[in-house]
Amino acid sequence: MEYGVSRAEEGQEVSVTVFVRDELGMHARPAARLAQAARRYRSRIILEYEDMTADAKSVLDILFLAAGRGAPLTLRCAGEDAREAAEVLEALFNEE
Amino acid sequence: MARAVLHGIVVSTGIAIGKGFFVNKNPESARHELVPLDRIESEAARLQDAVDTVAAEFAEARARLPGDLRRHADVLTSHLLICTDPRLGGEALRRVREQRMNAEWALEESVARIADIFNALSSPYIRDRIEDVRLVTDRLFQRLSGACAPHPTGGERGILLAHDLTPTDVVDLPIERIAAFAVAQGGGTSHTGLLARSLHIPAVIGVFGLRKEIFDGDLLIVDGLKGKLLVDPSEAELAAYSDLREQYAIYRKRVAAYAVHPAETEDGVQVSVLANVESAAEAEGVLSAGGEGVGLVRTEFGYITRSSLPGEEDLYEEYAGLAAALAPRKVTFRTLDVGGDKVFSRGKVSEEANPALGLRGIRYCVRHQDIFRTQLRAILRAGAHGNVSMMFPLISGLSELRLAKSILNEAKQELDDADVPFDPHIPVGIMIELPSAVFMADALAREVDFFSIGTNDLIQYTLGADRGNRHVAHLYQPLHPSIVRAIKQVVDMAHKTGISVCVCGEMASDPYCLPILLGMPVDELSLAPQSIPAIKHLIRRSHARQSRKLLDQALFASTANAINNMVRQAVHSAFPEDVGFFVSQLGVNR
Asked: CATH no. for residue A56?
């Protein structure tokens, strides 16, 4: 794998570092895909980029990050289904 | 007597009677109020309900999409996500509860905050998404105003009322249940007319007082001949109009029977009757209405109905399809005529203090040459599939024409270099819409293949009066002596140089203008397909020589009134039974 992953597990909180792969950055379509997927989980899911945080269930919040191609994002999931959420969302970033 | 009589502009003819129902009301009029403490929860519920319902509508629309429309499904998904986004509805709910704002106000505030953040972003791809947020919010506003259920009661067809109709609104209308359209907005709603004409139902736009005078469920008569809307009509009016509706249907049937035959006056002068269209979808309608070709393709439609600028291939496909469907009949494309009253969503025209005198028509195209070239190449390539001509709108003089033609020549060169098939000898004409073009008609005629007179703009620019402005609408006189003389001068100059003249404004379908135009004589008339059978019917019973005499008299007249009286007398004695079934701009029908 050509991208770096760091994982720290503290009880029910899982965090993963992912990278924006889309050429246009985190634009409408990938943002929608992410928010749609995030909403399937009950965990609280947060994206961190530079000094900003976004609610991953809000497509608008994700867009506000204006993360360009290659930007490193920290995905933090907290809650009962945090682990599954982190795995599925991480996989989303690795799809073409 | 009806409770109220409203007036508007007819964009599709006919008579309809039915109950009115609003599909959207002006969202700008959202009220701002502080909600009393004991009503906060019900206000929050009202907002939540709107969000849930609109979200369900998006989901349902997505479920109904056929599989090959995946891209559209993505758009609907993103709208659904925005609709249910915590930043939008959630924030608004918080404002209702914490700041006691009413739902509309709270929603407006949420959108304003979102817009602030978007505006600060540097990526245009992302910044433009604010348009999606607005689109979703508009629907929420509509839902909140309780105006979203476009369903006339019972099995009867209803009269659709709207502040404005956008192509998006039109997509999900229950078409089979609409008997007529009445729209408050005047300009930029050409698709209302287009849709209505293709459905053969009347449509009136620019209706003043629509919102104030009509409530959902009111009984209405739409007089799509005189441009009137009768609210709560009396028994006598209902009887008279249902009679008229029947007679009109009979008349339409009678003239349609001869539609496909040529139009020749009693004394043997043949006039070409062509159609004005907006899209390739109308080709079949042109033929069945007896159109001998297309005198005006309003190409704007292919731009305003798309959310982004169309590419050369999109346009080429559409244009070639129209040319091929009508070959060997001619199809005349007017190059993009945006600016002024025509909304253009993507290549947004900047705010101008005086748009009618601003960056519109050919001026817009020579300023945005990339857009212009793309279209020119598409038209040239369509020329390989049929009998295609093109014309430039709003030409004010020779240098503008020469500039446009030089860009056209470059486009030809590019196609030639790339070995792309096209018609190198495509006839090129201009629209005569400005008084300056009338004065320069002799010089212009030497450098083009034909003239097409756009009478709506020519009248507006010559008399300096906007027909949509009720304070000066009475000055908008199609048969003002200055207009009659201007057209005469253009026709004379064209014929002297050996080029033809088409009239493609509303005058071409006005029975009172017909003898004047026949008298000129203009070579071609181009009008809405719907009006072709009836105009052909009148031409067949006209006399070219008598029309010439009438025109000569009109050229000596010094007021619009004098000419109106002349033509009224002539037309009423020649076609006493027909005139009631026509739309006229003259006001002599009323």
From this structure: 3.30.1340.10
User: Are the beta carbons of A29 and B78 separated by less than 8 Å?
Assistant: yes
User: Are B495 and B528 within 8 A, CB to CB?
Assistant: no
For residue A27, tell me if it sits in a domain.
yes
Whether B4-25+153-243 and B34-144 share one fold: the answer is no
The minimum CA-CA distance between B342 and chain A, rounded to whole Å, is: 29
Q: Which CATH class is domain B34-144?
A: mainly alpha
pLDDT for B274 beyond 80:
yes
Amino acid (one-letter) located at A36: Q
Q: DSSP secondary-structure letter at B296?
A: E
Q: Which of B229, B228, B223 is nearest to B243 (CA)?
A: B223
ipTM above 0.85, yes or no: no
Residues of B designated catalytic: 191, 504
Residue of B489, B543, B494, B493 whose CA lies nearest to B514 = B543
B132 half-sphere exposure, CB direction, 13 A CA radius:
27
A56 shares contact with chain B (CB less than 8 Å) = no
Has residue A40 been placed in a domain?
A: yes
- H or E segment at B268? none
**Strand, helix or coil at B259?**
coil
Nearest residue to B542 via CA among B567, B560, B563? B567
A64 touches chain B (CB under 8 A): yes
A1 in a domain, yes or no?
no
Is the Cβ of A58 closer than 8 Å to some Cβ of chain B? yes
Supply the range of the domain harboring residue A82.
7-94
Q: How many domains does chain A have?
A: 1
Task: Kindly list the domain boundaries of chain B, sorted by start residue.
Answer: 4-25+153-243, 34-144
- Alpha-carbon distance of B94 to A78, in angstroms, equals 24
Strand-pairing partners, residue B221, are B17, B230
- For residue A31, indicate whether it is catalytic: no
Which is more confident, B144 or B524? B524
CA of B90 vs chain A CAs: smallest distance (Å): 10
Strand duo A72-78 + B228-231: pairing? unpaired
B540: Cβ contacts below 8 Å, ≥ 6 apart = B258, B263, B264, B265, B266
Q: According to the model, what pLDDT value does residue B343 have?
A: 47
Angstrom distance (rounded) from CA B420 to CA B415: 5
Instruction: List helix spans (H) across B351-454.
Output: 362-367, 369-382, 398-417, 435-439, 441-445
Whether chain A has a CB inside 8 Å of the CB on B125: the answer is yes
- Beta strands of B393-549 (E only): which ranges? 428-432, 450-453, 500-503, 524-527
Nearest to A28 among B85, B121, B129 (CB): B129
CB nearest to B77's CB, from A25, A32, A55: A32
- For the stretch B68-98, pLDDT in tens is 566 667 778 888 899 999 889 889 999 999 9
Give the helix/strand (H/E) hosting B178: strand B178-183
CB proximity B92 to A under 8 Å = no
> What pTM was computed for the model?
0.69
Domain B4-25+153-243 has CATH 2.40.50.100: no
| DSSP H/E element including B182 | strand B178-183
What is the nearest CA distance from A75 to chain B, expressed in angstroms?
19
Whole-number Å distance between alpha carbons of B6 and A48: 58
Q: Which candidate in A21, A22, A27, A78 is catalytic?
A: A27
Residue A41 domain-assigned (yes or no) = yes
